[in-house]
Amino acid sequence: MQTKEVHYSDYLQLDKILDAQTPESDLNGHPAHDEMLFIIIHQAYELWFKQILFEIDSVAAIMSQKVINDNSPDLQTIVHRLERIGVILKVAVHQIDIMETMTPMDFLDFRDFLRPASGFQSWQFKIAEAKLGLQFPERHGQEYYISQLRREHVDMIKSVEQQPSLLDLVDQWLGRMPFFEQPEHWKNYRALYPETPGKHPFWSDYSVIYANSLVEGEKANLAHFERLFFEKERSPERRLSAAACRSALFIMLYRGYPMLQLPFRLLNSLLEIDEQLSTWRYRHMSMVTRMIGLRTGTGGSSGRDYLKGALDKHYIFREIAALSSYLIERRRLPVLNREVEAQLGF
Amino acid sequence: MQTKEVHYSDYLQLDKILDAQTPESDLNGHPAHDEMLFIIIHQAYELWFKQILFEIDSVAAIMSQKVINDNSPDLQTIVHRLERIGVILKVAVHQIDIMETMTPMDFLDFRDFLRPASGFQSWQFKIAEAKLGLQFPERHGQEYYISQLRREHVDMIKSVEQQPSLLDLVDQWLGRMPFFEQPEHWKNYRALYPETPGKHPFWSDYSVIYANSLVEGEKANLAHFERLFFEKERSPERRLSAAACRSALFIMLYRGYPMLQLPFRLLNSLLEIDEQLSTWRYRHMSMVTRMIGLRTGTGGSSGRDYLKGALDKHYIFREIAALSSYLIERRRLPVLNREVEAQLGF
Amino acid sequence: MQTKEVHYSDYLQLDKILDAQTPESDLNGHPAHDEMLFIIIHQAYELWFKQILFEIDSVAAIMSQKVINDNSPDLQTIVHRLERIGVILKVAVHQIDIMETMTPMDFLDFRDFLRPASGFQSWQFKIAEAKLGLQFPERHGQEYYISQLRREHVDMIKSVEQQPSLLDLVDQWLGRMPFFEQPEHWKNYRALYPETPGKHPFWSDYSVIYANSLVEGEKANLAHFERLFFEKERSPERRLSAAACRSALFIMLYRGYPMLQLPFRLLNSLLEIDEQLSTWRYRHMSMVTRMIGLRTGTGGSSGRDYLKGALDKHYIFREIAALSSYLIERRRLPVLNREVEAQLGF
Amino acid sequence: MQTKEVHYSDYLQLDKILDAQTPESDLNGHPAHDEMLFIIIHQAYELWFKQILFEIDSVAAIMSQKVINDNSPDLQTIVHRLERIGVILKVAVHQIDIMETMTPMDFLDFRDFLRPASGFQSWQFKIAEAKLGLQFPERHGQEYYISQLRREHVDMIKSVEQQPSLLDLVDQWLGRMPFFEQPEHWKNYRALYPETPGKHPFWSDYSVIYANSLVEGEKANLAHFERLFFEKERSPERRLSAAACRSALFIMLYRGYPMLQLPFRLLNSLLEIDEQLSTWRYRHMSMVTRMIGLRTGTGGSSGRDYLKGALDKHYIFREIAALSSYLIERRRLPVLNREVEAQLGF
After folding, report:
1. How sure is the predictor about B91, in pLDDT bands with cuts at 50, 70 and 90?
2. What per-residue confidence (pLDDT) applies to D295?
3. Which of A22, B337, C266, D184 could form an SS bridge with B188, CB 3.0 to 4.6 Å?
4. Interface predicted TM-score of the whole assembly (ipTM), two decimals
5. Which of A313, A55, A275, A63 minimizes the C-alpha distance to A168?
6. Contacts of D among chains (3+ CB pairs under 8 A)
7. Domain for residue D4, yes or no?
8. Are A71 and D57 spatial neighbours (Cβ–Cβ below 8 Å)?
9. For the residues D278-306, what does the mean pLDDT come to?
10. Residue B137 CA, distance from chain mean position
11. Domain count, chain B
């Protein structure tokens, strides 16, 4: 145990934290009461972004191992931390309620003093997006966004984009899953339908059941299904391999088996992160609209339009979310043979 | 005081409320556990929609009076009830968290039994939108939405659309405001700039100040400003008259005066309703995407696309929201003369 | 698939749900606007209580099996549904925000018409408490609470109290856990300290480590520790056996192992339910205080005092919560031998 | 407008904010992942406490004026800022969800390194309580709490306690209200009951109506009523004078009148602050219980017991909350005469 005594104020370095608010409106001789709120809420956001980055890094470190040992706490730790990111983002969304206690007129009182600073300059947020898996070509308004950032921050983000992102690590982890690779476990699997050449008997059956489940107006999905799960070479626009998609779908379908529990929660936590990020962007956009209407943002952006553009494009785990289109009802699922079941249980 | 004794169960008619859940999956011989949740959450939503309609009706009744007496509790009552609708909608948004405890596989277990029922058939919600001010031509996917509803419900909605909506009543109330109509109060107003013909001296000044406030890239807003606040005849697409817009802007600018307090909160509560409705639609859309992916909704809609279409179009009070583009900084506001100030105080 | 077409309104039985609101103030000729809200919010609560009962029953049915097969989806299903109850309770807590839009004066307008009805007459809530594990002698204000309920509801609750509660089922499930019963798995366990007679070598070690971890002022905890985990006969006031407590503590300590993941989440979901129930009671009490002050409740209770009394007494899973006092740091944990580890992994 | 360009990172002083996290577990050579979360959440709390202090100070400055001009934006500003504090506290409560993603075992990993630091050493929170109106003799565990703080912080708190608190300022503001002081406005008031000597005719009537409203078991309230509203000299334990209580009750009763709108919301915002503070303390206590059970807190306190003790005692505006016991139904209210009504309207 340590010998030195720890004091709350020193431990939290409150001298720094509480001495970091200098309203521009004061410096400019037109003190505007609400600028303090504006500063503090953004600082609170940046603290949470730091925490989110810390969690992403720790998760990526574990997932970068060659093998994630199913008998270690690794998977549980990963899931726990990804779920925590979801909880933090929920509070971040809620925090917008505080910002909304500032009315447009109150914002106007100091808005001009901030130019050209802008929330787009939050490099921590951009790095978090990049570490999760957002890539430069997918970003909305690429040039604008680059122009806003300092050289050093652009470099940091670009360097992050060169590393494997969480999405890449998830793709690799899913692609490595050995369910279908071990023919000995499947030899007693009872195929329901004639085998399709080139497909594992399980997926051969699944394809037929899925095709039968499509109602009028959904028939076109079949082609997507074939491409998504069985294309030989990965299409350039895809972030998940066909093998990874098959693993992910299998996890969703048979999540009741103990061994698939944590993998299922891992996938779910990624969707939760995307959903909370997206809710955050949406509420942020609504708030900005309410605040500045059609006016130009302090950083010179067209405000609402930029945010709106990012809404649809910035879903990072959309290929995982899309898989729910290809599920079938539990009661039509192929029954697994005992050897496979044994692999999925304790 | 009443003589009959009241009992909780009778008072709440729990025999009806708690006996209104009959899962289709049971009737079809494939009981699916999560269908109970699906029924109950929709019933909870419908209860809240009933309450929201009840509040809208009561507010509309007060606002339909020829004059809203500033010395009566009328305005306070209106604001209180509109703010309550906002609080209800926040809980409605939160309630989606409960729905999200149902996974896509759990939904699939009973989804097919529900066809062609669909959430689009919630006539209470459609009526609420209509009472607030959404009109048929503004609705996304008009034919589809009509095709989903029963004749009787379509008739109800159409009949509501014929009545003055809350938005219409707000337009009339704003249009009636007497701030600028009484020349005697303004005779000591000190104009800052040469008068613009056809404009009240206050607005003549305001136009110049506003024009000066525009930064590079915003100059085009000036034409919008002129049209919005000073057009002689109402453009057919507008829901608020120029006079109503002037009143609303004046309220936002001078909300510090006691008499403008409640009017300001009234406008704000409308924006809050729109924002919560919009958040609800957005999270609903995200949830549906997560649940059924690209598949067809139980009512045959293209699911996500429909909901996405409605997102942008269904802002009911958007003309009020847009006014924040035309605010100017408090320290540049024209100073009101004493006679006008007296009108705005006690 | 079903042949009959399903319609939203019929499916949800909206004719019943939306026709179940009859304000007493209307019947008494003094219509009070806010009574509608009062009715609807209580009905929404009762819907959610029905759902909670439905989930508890389904969980209890699974847990009542002689053996919960670790290779079946049973445990995952139990955890999923208990966590859902937690999510529902969070919304129930949030719903109090809606109630708080009713001011004391608005409530007074119809309060007297409701006597002697009272929220204490919600038999669904009382049954939920009983099914979770609350027993009559632990209830605050027993006679009062009985006097409020109808004979039939008292009988229902009493009959529930005769059945094994969720707490009892958890006790049995924990008590059945075989970790320490199989001497062959532990034969290579390396004891750190001399064995204590009558204790398994693991617990013998643990007792010493725990004793060493106590700081000044905590020494008295040691006697509690011994009694809680090692008493031979169950003290009459205890709801968990010593063996169950040992299993629960082991689960908390070694939750990183795959096999203990779901058991850990199960325990956690029970604490979450207790915490949300308790938050609900607390916010409910605060709201009642704000609403009626020191006055007598409509059912004749002393309002706030009753609710306050229930706060502390009604923690159902408190014996599980209390176990966190007896944890030790991860880095001081006894290292498990390979044979035991193998039992806890896939 | 400023000439210097502002950049987001400089403006928010992110170099300080993001460089203020140094986990003790790292320094001690046993890095514990969750300590980062522990630091950051407390820093986020401290940022919000700073904001709350900033708002309280600004409100107190306005309320310290000899007269609050009803025709100025003063009252609106006060209410707006107090309501903002309520919104901030709601997010602070929600933030506990994040803390709860840390399990007891994760906390144990670094808990011992923090001794004797403790959340009780948050002097900002203690100062906020003092500025709102909590006084030393009302604090739970006075000596303990003093012993935890640094000399300089104790001095700061003591010095704040010497200043008029928000509660004192509210008492003075309520006591100054002129409703009943101007006999000329009341001369046409029609008394319903024979006058009580020493009471204003309005209060004379009100006393009779209130007495009649009491049901069996509430009769004892009458003595409280007389003392609370009509005692000649202020009892030493009271924070509000009888005159202030009469004003506050009058505001609650007749809040429909425009002039009482903002005063009513002001009183309500104080109760909301108390309720959120109390919810925060309650959830904090629940979390600590879940985290450390019966063990001693890092600062040496008995953890849960301290927090529990503070729960009941630290209601700052309880004398205002208690007034709702003395309301009567709207339809039994004395009708005000025209001259008084004119004072309460525009």
Report:
1. very high
2. 65
3. B337
4. 0.94
5. A63
6. A, B, C
7. no
8. no
9. 74
10. 17
11. 1
- Cis previous bond, A334, omega within 30: no
Chain D residues with beta carbon closer than 8 angstroms to that of B344: 71
Give me the pLDDT at residue A2, please: 47
Residue D3 lies in a domain: no
Q: What is the CA radius of gyration of chain D?
A: 24
Domain containing D175 equals: 24-344
Contact D257, B73 (CB under 8 A): yes
Specify the pLDDT at position D1: 43
In a domain, B19, yes or no: no
CA B252 to chain D, closest CA, distance in angstroms equals: 13
Q: How far, CA to CA in Å, does D254 sit from each of B164, C106, D247?
A: 31, 12, 11
Judging contacts by C-beta atoms under 8 Å, the chain C residues touching residue A67 are: none
A190 alpha carbon, distance to own chain's centre: 38
What CATH code is carried by the domain that includes residue A284? 1.20.58.480
- The string of pLDDT tens digits covering residues A132-160 is 999 988 887 777 777 888 899 999 999 99
Contacts of D294 in chain C (CB under 8 A): 221, 224, 322, 325
Output the pLDDT for position A1.
43
Q: Is residue A13 part of a domain?
A: no
List the single residue in B27, B40, B117 with the smallest CB-CB distance to C7.
B117
Q: Which of A107, A109, A88 is nearest to A45 (CA)?
A: A88
pLDDT bucket at D301, cuts 50 / 70 / 90: low
The backbone region for C329, taken as left when phi is positive above 0, alpha when psi lies in -120 to 50, beta otherwise, is beta
Q: Which of B140-154, B313-327, D154-168 has the lowest mean pLDDT?
A: B140-154
Q: B257 contacts in D (CB within 8 Å)?
A: 71, 73
Give the pLDDT score at A245. 97
Model pLDDT for residues B183-203, shown as the tens digit of each residue: 889 999 999 999 898 899 999
The confidence score (pLDDT) of residue D302 equals 57
* Cα C260 from Cα C243, distance rounded (Å): 16
The helix/strand/coil state of A345 is coil
Residue type, A141: G
**Cross-chain residue pair D105–C255, CB shorter than 8 Å:** yes
Q: Using CA atoms, how far apart are residues B18 and A31, in angstroms rounded to an integer?
A: 58
| Residue C167 identity | L
Mean confidence (pLDDT) of chain B: 90
Q: Among D55, D125, D83, which Cα is nearest to D307's?
A: D125
Contact flag A91-D94 (C-beta cutoff 8 Å):
yes
Token pair belonging to A298: 């302090």
Low-confidence ranges of chain A (pLDDT < 70): 1-3, 294-307, 312
Structure tokens belonging to residue C140: 């605050």
DSSP 8-state symbol, C2: -
Interface test with chain C among D327, D328, D331, D332, by most C beta carbons within 10 Å? D327
- Tracing tokens 């009787």 back to the chain, one arrives at B152
Q: What are the counts of helices (DSSP H) followed by strands (DSSP E) for chain D?
A: 18, 0
The chain B residue lying nearest D261, using CA atoms, is B76
